[in-house]
Specification:
Belongs to the YkuD family. It is built from three helices and 13 strands; from the N terminus they run αββββββββαββββαβ. The strands form three sheets. A nine-stranded mixed sheet has the order 3-6-5-4-13-8-9-10-12. The chain has a two-stranded antiparallel sheet with strand order 1-2. A two-stranded parallel ribbon has the order 7-11.
C-alpha cells in the first residue's frame, strides 16, 4: 500500500478531470497547499482512500445527518445544484447530506436518472465535448489516487442509456462547494465511498436547479 508521502506526491499531479474543470485547475496558494488538506488514509483496495481535513470546509458541506421533510422516498438521491449538496433520503424523516462540487454555468445538468452502474477506482475517459474543447486530452486514464474520478463513481442512466454524467470522488477537495466542473457531481473520496456502500444499482437520482428537476 502507498505511504502517505507517496500518496501526497501522487495527488500533487495536476488533475486531468472528468467531469473535469472546464477552465483549468484551481490555483492553490503556497499557504494553503494540497498536502495540507490531507490527514491520512483509510484502507481500501487497490489503493487507500485519502482522508481530508473537513475542518477546512464550510460546515454546510460536511457529511451530516439532517431532518428531511421532502416527498421523495427513502433511498432516493437528491442533488441540489444551487446549494451544492447531495442528500440521501432515509426513513423516519431523516437524511444523510454531503457537500458536493458541481458543473459551472452552462455545464450543469438537471433531471431524473438512476444509478445504472457503479465503479471502484474507475478509469477515466473524456467525453466527445471535452475532447472538442481540449483536443490534447488523453483518451483514457487508469484509476488511482490521482485520477479525477476518485475512489468511486456512480454512473447515471436514463432507461438503458448512459447520459455521461457521474457522481464521483475527486482529488481536488477544495472544489467541494464550488461550481467549476464540466457537469458531473464531485464528492470527497471518503464521502463517495460512504454513499457507494449505501445505494444499489437502480437508485433513483434527482438533480435539481432552482428547486426543480423537470424542465
Amino acid at each position: 500500500m502507498p505511504t502517505r508521502r507517496t500518496l501526497l506526491a501522487a495527488l500533487a499531479v495536476v488533475p486531468l478531470a472528468a467531469c473535469q474543470q472546464s477552465r483549468g485547475p484551481v490555483q492553490v496558494s503556497a499557504a494553503d497547499d494540497e498536502a495540507a488538506w490531507y490527514i491520512g488514509t483509510k484502507p481500501d483496495k487497490p489503493y487507500d482512500v485519502p482522508l481530508v481535513d473537513t475542518g477546512r470546509l464550510d460546515p454546510k458541506y460536511r457529511r451530516q445527518v439532517v431532518s428531511y421533510t421532502g416527498p421523495e422516498k427513502p433511498g432516493t438521491i437528491v442533488v441540489d445544484i444551487d446549494e451544492r449538496q447531495l442528500t440521501l433520503v432515509q426513513a423516519e424523516g431523516s437524511a444523510i447530506r454531503y457537500g458536493v462540487g458541481v458543473g459551472k454555468l452552462g455545464f450543469s445538468w438537471k433531471g431524473e436518472a438512476r444509478v445504472g452502474r457503479k465503479g471502484v477506482w474507475p478509469d477515466w475517459s473524456p467525453t466527445t465535448t471535452m475532447v472538442s474543447l481540449n483536443p490534447d486530452l488523453p483518451r483514457t486514464r487508469k484509476g488511482g489516487v490521482d485520477n479525477p474520478l476518485g475512489a468511486r463513481a456512480l454512473y447515471l442512466y436514463q432507461g438503458n442509456r448512459d447520459i455521461l454524467f457521474r457522481i464521483h470522488g475527486t482529488n481536488e477537495p477544495w472544489s467541494i462547494g464550488e461550481q467549476m466542473s464540466s457537469g458531473c457531481v464531485r464528492m470527497l473520496n471518503e464521502d463517495i465511498v460512504d454513499l457507494f456502500e449505501r445505494v444499489p444499482v437502480g437508485t433513483r437520482v434527482l438533480v435539481k436547479r432552482n428547486g426543480k428537476y423537470r424542465v
